[in-house]
Amino acid sequence: MKKLFFSLFFIIGFWGANFPVYVNLNSQPQLIVIDPGHGGIDPGAVNSWVKEKDLNLTASLYLKQFLENAGAIVTLTRNGDYDLKDLYPGPGSRQFKDIENRKKYIENLNPDFFISIHVNSGNFRKKYFGQVFYGRNPINAEFASIIQDSLNKIYNVSKSPQIADFLILSASTPGVLIEIGFIDDKRLQNSDFLKKVCQEIASSIIKCLNQKKQISQLKGESKLLIIIDDFGNNSDSLVDFLKLKLPFTAAVMPFLNNTHQEAKALYQSGNDIIIHLPMEPKSYKRSWLGPRPIMVNLTPQEITSLLIAALKENPWAIGINNHTGSRACEDEKIVKTVLSFCQKNNLAFIDSQTTPNSLFPLLGSEFGVVVLKRDIFLEVNGKEEKNIIEQLKKLQSIAQKKNLGIAIGHVGYEGGKPTANALKKVLPELQRQGFKICTLSDLIKKHP
C-alpha cells in the first residue's frame, strides 16, 4: 500500500504540476539530454520504501518540463522503469553496460548539454545538500559551478562542485552529474520541494547555455597530480621525497612498522596523505600485500574494521588508493564497502587502475564519493631516470588535452631516487610553462 501511495503521489504531483520558468533561452533551441540514474532491477539507493530510481525519474520529468518551457529541446535516456544494458551490444557486466550505453546514447545525440540525475545514499541527516560533479573539462567546470550555486541556494549551504572520473562523465559532450539530495531527506518526497529544486537547476542550466559562447572560450589551467606510492616501508629514498620541495600526494601503506611515523613526517613536510590500501589481485605473492590486505573472502564488517584501523593509524589521510587489487576492484561487495567508508569519512578514492574493469568509477556516483583515475605509472618502462622523464612528458600531453593528468610513482624498489630526481628536473620546468603541480586537496573540496 505504501508503494502504491508513493507512486500515485508522484504521478498526481507531476501531472498536476505548474511549470513556471525564471529565464528563457536567448538563442535558438538547444538540445539537452537528461539521464535519470538507475532503473529496472537496479533501484539505486533505498530508504524504507523510497527508491532512488523513482526519485531520479520524477525529478527528471519535472526538469524536462521546466527546460522545455524555457525553449530547450529535451530528451531522456529513459522515461520508464528500465535500464539501458541492452541498448547497444557489447561485453561487460549489467551495471557497466547500462552506464556505458547511457554514455553512448548521449554521445550519439551530441547534445549541447547533458545532466545525469541521482540521489545520494547514506544517512547524513545533518547535511541535506546537493552536489554537482563534473569531468575533466573546463567547460564542464564552469557549468558545474553555476549549477552548484543554484543548489546551494536551495539548501542554504556553501559548497563547491567536485571533479570526478565517473564513467558517465567521460562522455565527449559537455555535462554534469547532480546528486539532488540524500535518500533519507523526506523533503525530496514532497512534490513542491522537488519541483523547487528542479526549477532552480533548470534556471541554472538555461543560464549556462545562454553563456555557453563565453564559457567555451575559457581555457582551464592544465594540472598535474603526482601520487607517490609505498611509503611506510622504511625506504632509503624517503628522504629524497621529503626534500623534494615540490607538491605531491603521499600514499602510505597501512599496518607496517613505519606507517604512522612516515605518514606524520610527510604530513608535517606539507604533503597530502592518502592510505595506500592493499587489495587482492588476480595473481600474486602473499608477501606483496602486507599484513592485513582487503581480500574478497572478507565480510563487509571485516573490511570496515580494517579501514577503521587504517585511518586510526593515519589520521591525516584525505583519501585512499588501491595497492594492487585487480581482483578486489572488480568485486561489487568490496567496492561498495570501501566507497561507503569513504562517504562516511569524507575521503576521496584514487583508482590506481590495476584493472580496466574496476567498479570504482562505475559506483562512485552512487555514494557521492570523488573517484579519480590514474592516467600513467611513472616507472612503467623501468626505473631509469630517462624513462621516467619520458613518462612525465606523456603526462604533460594528457594534462593539455584533459586539463588534468594523474601519475603514480613509487618511493621504494620500483622507483625511489630515480623517480625523485626526474621530478626534481622536470616539474619546475613544467611550472614555468604554466602547468599547475597540485596535490589532492587542490582538486577536491571538503564538505562544510
TrEMBL record:
Gene3D superfamilies: Glycoside hydrolase/deacetylase, Zn-dependent exopeptidases. It holds the Pfam family Amidase_3. CDD domains: CE4_DAC2 (cd10936), MurNAc-LAA (cd02696). InterPro entries: Divergent_DAC, Glyco_hydro/deAcase_b/a-brl, MurNAc-LAA_cat. One of its GO terms (molecular function) is N-acetylmuramoyl-L-alanine amidase activity. One of its GO terms (biological process) is carbohydrate metabolic process. Residues 103-206 form the MurNAc-LAA domain. This is Putative N-acetylmuramoyl-L-alanine amidase. It comes from Carboxydothermus hydrogenoformans (strain ATCC BAA-161 / DSM 6008 / Z-2901).
